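WP5 quarterly update. Target: Helix-turn-helix protein. Source organism: Harryflintia acetispora. Length: 90 aa.
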Amino acid sequence: MSNKISEENERYMQNLLCNIRLLRLEAGLSVKEMANIVGMEESLLLRLEAGEQADEFDSGHIFRYCHYFHVHPNELFGGWPIRRNAPPEP
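Structure tokens (predicted):
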């Protein structure tokens, strides 16, 4: 059971990391601009966008992403990458 939970958590984290990069690119923001908006160092944002998990990434950063992009936290962790005109998930 615990292995299944950790696999699910890993999937949610990978969705989050994919979606934060996708949102930045769709908005046409540089890494520096996005880092300033969410209050983190550029190096941390680059590591996150590269798929590395970092302990410094916290709920405050997630809140600022949600606030800036007008998305719900569940959308950041959802299985379908956030795309404005994406087809529904099968």
